[in-house]
Design a protein that fits this description.
361 residues, alpha/beta, Rossmann fold, 2 domains, 5-stranded parallel sheet, two-stranded antiparallel ribbon, 10% strand, elongated
Length: 361
């Protein structure tokens, strides 16, 4: 998505140029939409800006650097540089992958498709055949299920070369564990190990924490994945600064005339309580609340918009937790237990009145 609008050439006319109107907050937000600094067309509407919000956290940038490092070194190294990315659902793994794919899109050339970064999702019922078919489908093979496993594997290697693929991202890696028997699927993991050796391409495995079990059960596969990184939710105690920086970055990109006060102490704590510190849930709440604010032609996201967003996007997952977006923090229900609260780094229940309504003005 390049979207970079060309600069207009200097005018040679002697007429006085018309005074340009100052850019609105919405247009500035549109200009800053792409995290990599590129500029989108001003025709992009505020609703699209909200839907496309991407926050470039330190963790996202660190993992992207690892990907770039693996792509560069694997061209000259004796073995490809592979890595494992794990984290609980909602911690931000998918956003990290989506943003990297956005920055490295496939392109159609005279000789065919170029796919520098191949994204493959592991089928829920993982077998050698189903995983091979998933690879072929991602590579554009019109008949991904055709042929036996040897035939499909040869086509994968051939297409990876033809598409000039430099790195493969294999998501939902925890599906390499049989859900019914809770056993690692050795034949599938061995097939993947052989594919890595034969294709000589770096592979990034992405999945839930139990993905580590697959590597632990296959020593030869584990040896290829020395680089491992965990994506975590924000911890209220340890990550307070990073959490507030995340909200501040989101605030800068929101297409509203006025600040929504996301980093104000009261509102920041309410958003944390509503999301449990999960980046994906934070963004879900912000997007939904932002759409409500747009539909009501508000100049910022107000508390009532957060209340609606919570009820529509999060409440069903947290029945009994209560509505965290009250006008004061004091009425918020306490967390289930002090032990759970401390282990998750959650803020303790408030006992004093904290004006959160002011956070939205």
């Amino acid at each position: 998505m390049s979207g970079n609008s060309p600069e207009s050439s200097p005018s040679t006319s002697t007429e006085q140029p018309k005074k340009q109107a100052a850019p609105s907050a919405a247009s500035l937000a549109i200009d800053s939409f792409c995290g990599d600094g590129s500029t989108l067309s001003r025709s992009l509407g505020p609703a699209q800006v909200i839907e496309g919000l991407v926050i470039h956290t330190d963790k996202l940038q660190e993992i992207h650097r690892r990907f770039d490092h693996a792509r560069a070194l694997s061209k000259i190294a004796a073995e490809p540089y592979c890595s494992l990315v794990v984290g609980e659902s909602g911690a931000g793994k998918s956003s990290i992958i989506r943003e990297y794919l956005r920055q490295h899109r496939p392109s159609r050339q005279p000789d065919g498709m170029i796919i520098p970064v191949l994204s493959v999702t592991t089928p829920s019922q993982a077998t050698m055949g189903s995983v091979a078919s998933a690879f072929l489908a991602a590579l554009g093979d019109p008949l991904p299920d055709k042929g036996n496993i040897d035939s499909r594997t040869r086509r994968i290697r051939k297409l990876l070369k033809q598409c000039q693929t430099e790195i493969v991202i294999l998501d939902e890696f925890q599906h390499f564990i049989d859900r019914d028997r809770e056993k690692v699927l050795f034949t599938v993991s061995d097939w993947l190990k052989n594919l890595i050796s034969e294709a000589r391409l770096p592979i990034v495995l992405v999945g839930l924490e139990q993905s580590r079990r697959v590597l632990a059960a296959n020593e030869q596969l584990r040896r290829r994945f020395q680089s491992q990184v965990e994506v975590k939710r924000f911890n209220w105690t340890a990550d307070r600064g990073r959490y507030l920086s995340f909200l501040q970055a989101a605030e800068r990109k929101l297409p509203f005339e006025k600040s929504s006060g996301l980093t104000n102490p009261g509102l920041a704590e309410q958003i944390y309580r509503a999301s449990d510190g999960l980046p994906a849930t934070i963004m879900k709440i912000l997007r939904r609340a932002g759409h409500h604010a747009l539909s009501q032609k508000s100049k910022s996201i107000e508390l009532k918009h957060f209340q609606l967003a919570y009820d529509e996007t999060v409440f069903q997952d947290k029945k009994g937790a209560g509505q965290p977006f009250f006008t004061t923090i004091a009425g918020n229900p306490p967390f289930a237990s002090q032990a759970n609260q401390e282990s998750a780094g959650k803020p303790p229940p408030k006992t004093s009145q904290t004006g959160a309504a002011a956070a939205t003005t």
